[in-house]
Amino acid sequence: MFKSTEDFAKQLDQQDSLSHFKDEFYIKENQIYMDGNSLGLMSKRSEKRLLEVLDSWKNFGIDGWTNGDHPWFYLSENLGAKVAKLVGGKPEEVVVTGSTTTNLHQLVATFFKPEGKRTKILADELNFPSDIYALKSQLKLRGLDPDEHLIRVKSRDGRTINEEDIIDAMTDEVALVILPTVLYRSGQLIDIKRVTDAAHKRGIKIGWDGCHSVGAIPHDFHNQGVDFAYWCHYKYVNNGPGGVAGLFVHEKHFGTEPGLAGWFGSDKTKQFDMEHDFTPAQTAGAFQIGTPHVLSVAPLIGSLELFEEAGMDAIREKSLKATEYLMYLVKENLSDYEFTIGNPTDDAFRGGHVCLEHSEAASICKALKANGVVPDFRAPNVIRLAPVAFYVTYHDVYQMVMILKDIMENETYKHYKNERDVIA
Ligand SMILES: *Cc1c(COP(=O)(O)O)cnc(C)c1O
């Protein structure tokens, strides 16, 4: 269905109903940005809303909490209700708060209740390190030895986690399962419904890390009965470096006492009573801790307007087509250079990025950067390339592959050391 010509790439762009969104973003001239899976680009809308929030500080001082276009006191909940559309939650099941890692700490502190024989947490051996560090420290805080109580499902191929293996590991010693929706390196999308159902059938709670899917893939957390989920907004949701994250708690758990309590988890009408007895909100808002980082929330106001206009289904459709096109171009043009496609190729199991493996991946990434393409490298041998629906065109994908072909043909990657930089 694809052709390997430049004209064909331009045709795909002409048919793309999302192509006009590229103008909403700041993109350096002559740069092809394929790293939105690590840090999404800044939109003009995000900049505008951030400036408005700064203005409300300038104009209102303390009264900015309740005045202005974006009253800070309600921002986390109001934006949570909008993010809920991205993740398939009810408005009160989602709140914008914390970071991925602090939200994981909060949710494990709340929902990990070791009892009798059930004292273990089940994760996978390919998850992002921060999640694993958090789980180990949560076990230690309960006096449980992580070597014994953290089970990590092994990968059969070093890239993906087999769903059967996850389900087989759900023994009657497991109290909680924590998994990524999409694996950060290979881009494998796990069947959330299937694995959630399997956990529940065995009396196990399950939480999902949505960092690599929220904003790229529509979710249905409420209907799937997911117990909780957490994710960042600075990758596919474009709210900027260190931008405030999100969490989902299913309404069946409303009223559960937060493991880590703080006054911003209060019922909002009671918060300023200043009582020493905590009255948590009866929503996901209960799992906030302290004062929201308002200036790092503000870009999300603008970013979510773009999501509202584009719609998650159209975003996923373009992302699937663009990743498929990228894989096609790699096969057509780079077959002489020993690249392996490490991501699942099936639409049902493919996330938002393509995982290209090569033994010289680190030097190839540096050569790409020197030639105006921004990829990222994940040790030991992965080049991640995300054709983000909002701002990467099909023509960008075409040009990127041609640049890569040139780098391989002329061996210019050999000018660079095959080692990662401090930030890869
Ligand atoms: C990006 C990412 C994180 C980052 O956590 P922060 O708390 O935002 O630094 C954690 N886990 C996964 C799976 C990620 O992809």
Q: What's the CATH superfamily of the largest domain, by name?
A: Type I PLP-dependent aspartate aminotransferase-like (Major domain)
Number of domains: 2
According to CATH, the fold-level topology of the largest domain is Aspartate Aminotransferase, domain 2
Summing up helix and strand content along with how strands pair, one would put the structural category as: alpha/beta
Q: What spatial form do the alpha-carbon principal axes imply?
A: globular
Molecules bound to protein? pyridoxal-5'-phosphate
Q: What share of the residues does DSSP label as strand, in percent?
A: 5-15%
Strand order of the largest sheet: 2-8-7-6-5-3-4
Give the C-alpha Rg. 22 Å
Mean pLDDT: 97
Order of helices and strands: HEHHEHEHHEHEHEHEEHHEEHEEEH
Sheet with the most strands?
A: 7 strands, mixed
Which architecture of the largest domain does the CATH hierarchy give at level 2?
Answer: 3-Layer(aba) Sandwich
Helix content: 25-40%
Terminal CA distance reads: 35 Å
Low-confidence region ranges: none
Mind telling me the CATH class of the largest domain? Answer: Alpha Beta
Number of helical stretches of at least 4 residues: 13
Task: Say how many strands there are.
Answer: 13
Characterization of the model:
This protein has 424 residues and is an alpha/beta fold. It has helices at residues 6-14, 44-60, 72-87, 100-111, 129-141, 146-149, 163-168, 192-201, 221-224, 294-310, 312-333, 361-370, 394-409; strands at 32-33, 94-96, 120-124, 150-153, 174-180, 205-209, 228-231, 246-249, 340-341, 354-357, 373-374, 376-378, 382-385. The protein folds into 2 domains: 6-30 and 313-415, Alpha-Beta Complex (Aspartate Aminotransferase, domain 1), CATH 3.90.1150.10; 48-309, 3-Layer(aba) Sandwich (Aspartate Aminotransferase, domain 2). It is built from 13 helices and 13 strands. A hairpin with a 3-residue loop joins strand 12 (376-378) and strand 13 (382-385). Helix 4 (100-111) packs parallel to helix 5. Residues 99-101, 128, 130-131, 180, 184, 209, 211-212, 232 line the site of pyridoxal-5'-phosphate.
